[in-house]
Write a structure and sequence with these properties.
- By secondary structure, this protein is of the alpha+beta class.
- It has one helix spanning about 40-70; strands at about 1-15, 20-30.
- It has a two-stranded antiparallel sheet.
- The longest helix has 30 residues, at about 40-70.
- The protein is elongated, with a radius of gyration of 16 Å.
- It starts with a strand and ends with a helix.
- The mean pLDDT is about 85.
Length: about 70
């Protein structure tokens, strides 16, 4: 196994310059499980895990935007 991680900085502004969400940072990390005897298993495990992490970041930003609209 191993671990993957990343950091995303973001802010949201309207076209008129109004700040909806000030600069924020999201940190994500995941353990990657794979069969060490299979190189392809490792690559596939990392790819799936990275996609899941990207989805998690996107959903976090969407939830934050929804909270601003309430």
């Amino acid at each position: 196994g191993g671990a993957l991680g990343g950091v995303v900085d973001y802010a949201v502004r309207l076209s008129n310059g109004t700040e909806l969400i000030p600069k924020d940072t999201l940190r994500v990390s995941r353990d990657v499980l794979y069969d060490e005897a299979q190189v392809l298993g490792r690559a596939a495990g990392e790819t799936i895990t990275m996609r899941d992490m990207i989805d998690d970041v996107a959903y976090s930003i969407i939830r934050r935007l929804q909270a601003v609209n309430r």
